[in-house]
Amino acid sequence: MKSFLKFSDKLQNFGAYLSSFLFIALTILIVTEIVSRSFFNVSTMIAGEYSGYFYLASVFFGLGYTFKENGHIRITILTSKLSKKGIKVVDIFAGVITLGLLLFILYYSIKMVIESYKFDMVSETVSQTPIYLTQLALPIGLFMFCIAVLAFIFKRISDDK
């Protein structure tokens, strides 16, 4: 189990780095568009579209890391009244429910990517980007998030408190 937890940590850190890189790329793309329009009266024609793709990918790749670092919103009104053992039980239960929901969403996001690939769907912009490429961030990010939640469940189960 320690090797799985170590793998999960490395995977979530990789997701955070990838998310950061994409956010930097998004910023560079927008600045490039602003400069090219302001000084050269020319547009990249893809800045709006690709900044959306980069932003979406950045969010999904960062989900697992955010969860690992307790960055997601938690409602503690119930758990604040419980003992440590009660909190552990609620955390494990919530983790299992969350994992089930994430697996459901992951399944349908994979189906969506496959359908986009099968039907050769492309964006309706100048770039004609294959849609499945832009959608791949969803199942990859959700998979990473599932690994983070699974690691959380394992950690809570192995807690002695």
Give a description of the structure.
With 161 residues, the chain is mostly helical. It has helices at 2-40, 47-68, 84-118, 131-135, 137-158. It has one domain (2-158). The protein contains five helices and no strands. Helix 1 runs antiparallel to helix 5, helix 2 runs parallel beside helix 5 and helix 3 (84-118) runs antiparallel to helix 5 (137-158). It is elongated and about 65 Å long. The two termini are 18 Å apart. The relative contact order is 0.17. The model has no long low-confidence stretch (mean pLDDT 95).
Write a brief caption for the model.
The protein is mainly alpha-helical and 161 residues long. It has helices at residues 2-40, 47-68, 84-118, 131-135, 137-158.
What is the molecular shape?
elongated
Termini gap: 18 Å
Number of strands: 0
* Helix fraction bin: over 70%
Q: What fraction of the residues are assigned to beta strands by DSSP?
A: under 5%
Query: Main β-sheet, in a few words?
Result: none
**Regions with pLDDT < 50 over 5+ consecutive residues?**
none
Number of helices: 5
Question: How do the helices and strands follow one another from N- to C-terminus?
Answer: HHHHH
In terms of quaternary structure, the protein is single chain
Overall mean pLDDT stands at 95
Q: What gyration radius follows from the Cα positions, in whole Å?
A: 20 Å
Domain tally: 1
How would you classify the helix and strand content by structural class?
mainly alpha
